[in-house]
Design goal:
The structure is a homodimer.
Chain A lengths: L17 H16 L6 H7 L6 H5 L3 H30 L7 H18 L1 H15 L5 H23 L5 H20 L3 H6 L8 H4 L2 H14 L2
Helix pairs in contact in A: 1-2, 1-4, 1-6, 4-5, 4-7, 5-6, 5-7, 5-11, 6-7, 6-8, 8-11
The first copy, chain A, binds a DNA duplex (30 and 30 nucleotides) through helix 3.
Chain lengths: ~220, ~220
DNA sequence: GAAGAATTTCAACGATCGTTGAATAGTAGT
DNA sequence: ACTACTATTCAACGATCGTTGAAATTCTTC
């Protein structure tokens, strides 16, 4: 029998620490099959390490998952907050345009995904997965991302001072859905468009998304 | 030991067929925990039926899942197609507005979800789940929904004759993400808005969504 | 009410699950 | 060489997994 019969691919042992190999392997597998769809044994086979090492480096399967989420979330919050502050400093006194604010919200993510695709692809797919799960999506997304989202909503409120709260929050909801489906990279768009648009072509969506969404915000908030 | 220790709720045996009770129980559980997160034993406990009956009425777990998808998809395709045809007949000769077309795409779903919430809630959550899954989302969504989507894209192409294909397909992609997150009813919007907007309030989103999305289509397709 | 088909019950299979404890190997400072 | 700590290996636990075959029951039709 094969020593590692579970994974198709394998995380190279090269320079990485065992802990990192486990995180990488688990991140990729969770992104593809979901939390319950992947076993510790599959993860450790892909990471080329013994099963019990998962429980040595992390306390449990659930803790391993949380650690995957935590590993990258601060980087994302940092670059997005800095992008927003840069936009605001560019317009001292008055509010930036809606499109500029949304661009600060989406551009850092899509750009990161474009430039370091292999590194971030699975993490974004995981977020997309969670964002659309009614159950444990709630707590996770709230804790990790809501503070930043509130910061952006304040900026948008200044740019759209006459906007009803309900209109604003629903607009953000639409934004959130569009953004997460985009970096889920499901390939459905490729199939549907017959090649006219590619899910993985972040460079081609990075400008389109804020343009599209800003128009929505502005029309919905128009008195 | 309890006879049915798995499910929290239970599908009443009343008037329904065993087959229907299994489908209902499985639909709800799959929507909450995902395909791999639910066992046949949990499903049959909730349906108050013996485990082996799942394999009598359906060949396998996978087949049960496919049957859940098939059970309601024709109804959805029917009402959406009829809504589009009604809009087109209202504008003989020339094309309907972008907002009217999008409304025909989204309104039937949101209205159905509003009026028969308990009946459709879990099915829509399941679709949201699948739409954001890179793996087996692809084939399923393509087979069941793409023909109708292509029909809508043709209508939109007529309403936006100067639109680049790439712009049109990306716009639809944003629409798809916004729509599926909306009927996922994750509750995240409620939490974020502090009550100003409610995920489950379909009546309040049914007009906002086409308005928001039509603005996006039009600005992105503007020459 | 007998015959035949459809449905339900019961018991079990091999495989895999998350998790653990104890033994072994590797590394650093003294 | 000895110690202390970290990292890894090996073997196993009880529970649950998807699935099945055969017997028992209920339903339908004459």
């Amino acid at each position: 029998m094969l020593k590692f019969k579970y994974g198709d691919g394998v995380i190279k042992k090269d320079k990485q620490t065992t802990r990192e190999r486990i995180l990488d392997a688990a991140e990729e597998l969770f992104a593809h099959k979901g939390y319950e769809g992947v076993s510790i044994r599959q993860i450790m086979a892909k990471a080329e390490a013994d099963v019990s090492l998962a429980y040595y480096h992390f306390k449990s399967k659930r803790d391993l998952f949380n650690e995957i989420m935590l590993r990258r979330v601060e980087i994302l919050n940092d670059i997005r907050l800095k992008a927003l502050e840069a936009v605001e400093e560019r317009h001292p006194g008055n509010a930036p345009s809606v499109e500029e604010i949304i661009d600060a919200f989406t551009h850092p993510l899509l750009d990161l995904l474009a430039r370091e695709h292999e590194e971030w692809k699975y993490y974004f797919q995981l977020i997309a997965h969670i964002n659309n799960s009614p159950d444990w999506g709630g707590e996770l997304m709230t804790r990790y991302f809501d503070p930043l989202v509130r910061r952006f909503l304040e900026a948008l409120k200044k740019a759209l001072p006459d906007c009803d709260d309900a209109d604003l929050y629903w607009s953000y909801h639409f934004l959130s859905g569009a953004l997460t489906l985009t970096f889920a990279e499901t390939g459905r768009l490729d199939n549907l468009s017959g090649g006219a648009a590619k899910s993985s072509d972040m460079a081609s969506v990075v400008d389109r998304m804020p343009k599209f969404l800003a128009a929505g915000f502005e029309r919905l908030c128009k008195k």
